[in-house]
């Protein structure tokens, strides 16, 4: 069973901007190596960010942190939405800018 911390978004406010970026990518299920490549950092730094995120959020694993990112995505990526496809078939699909 998941801990209560996963459902408590308060810890997200304690994260740095870079930690928020890492958490958003973690929420997509990406490995440290891929997160590092996407952010232009070394894998060891990505791993350190993940460890810091787990501690700050009060969760016990990167999986719980990823679940938290998924559950509270709107807090990580509050930016306005922009259309991904403006064709009539698009049906209003949108993509979060930066996340």
Automatic annotation (TrEMBL):
The keyword DNA-binding applies. Coiled coil: none annotated. Residues 8-73 form the HTH luxR-type domain. Keywords: DNA-binding. Transmembrane segments: none annotated. Residues 80-99 are annotated as: Disordered. GO terms for biological process: regulation of DNA-templated transcription. The keyword DNA-binding applies. One of its GO terms (molecular function) is DNA binding. This is LuxR family transcriptional regulator. It comes from Streptomyces globosus.
